[in-house]
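User: My advisor asked me to double-check a structure prediction for Quinone oxidoreductase family protein before group meeting. I don't want to rely on an old file, so could you generate it fresh from this sequence?
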Amino acid sequence: MTKAIRMEAFGGTDVLKWQEIDLGAPAVGEVQIRHTAIGLNFIDTYHRTGLYPLPLPATPGLEAVGVVEAMGEGVESFKVGDRVGYPAGPIGAYVEARNIPAAKLVKIPDSVSDEDAAALMLKACTVEAFVERLYPVKAGETVLLHAAAGGVGLIACQWLSAIGATVIGTVGSPEKAELAKAHGCTHTVLYRDEDFVARVKDITNGEGVPVVYDSVGKATFMGSLECLKRRGVMVTFGNATGPVDPVPPALLAQKGSLMLTRPVLMDYVATRPELEHSTSRVFEMIASGKLKARINQRFALKDAAEAHKALEARQTSGQTILIP
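Assistant: Sure, here is a fresh prediction for Quinone oxidoreductase family protein from the sequence you gave:
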């Protein structure tokens, strides 16, 4: 037996229940791991509410780090005692221990702590995919990044700064502005007090930016389109303020042949080579000192509901982890 957060219905944080579950032996091709740290991500709240529906009952969570305790038949790439992690599911990370396909796991190098790996993997692999493969940002380019002091935001600020890009970041408070700047954000915009479109145009001398990274959703989407240069790329990857309204394709043409994408990490680590490439780049960035975790919140796994409340209320900054 082991304990897990389970949900039998979609809804508010009250649907997250702390329960005992059976944990059998790992099947063929599986590894049994005991978690030491679990990453909290905004997508977890979408799974809980049903915005991204799951078959019920379900256990949320897409990333975690732990230690190998047993292996199923056919597993040769890991051994008992290995430190391992997974950045992109399969879903079900809110557990003390679980069985998971070996193909989804990577070894955690000695240079990376369990907590840092759990805090960074999903978010940093997302940043790697978006700034190195979806739209390869070049040194000297200026980009717009919403929620620059959030979990993904602080990682993106560091990564983009390391590339040599200029980052315009929107934030919700002067404190978050200072945090974003400390992580490489060049210009901060207090979105509650300032017109971010006007600020972007002012900073770029009216040109706009070639790419916008927007995890906020409904509240910023149309303004983000206004910030783009001709043939600019709109990367919308979150719904913190609600889902974006339907967009007629002709609107993208009218605003300068813009390109719109709604990416998810799972499609960028879908193959074993992609998974290894992305996690290796993340671990390289950590080892080089160019990427550092900012774990500002830790919750016990059994208190996952409280973690969700804080995240949805925008009371968090940096990264949040759950401790089994």
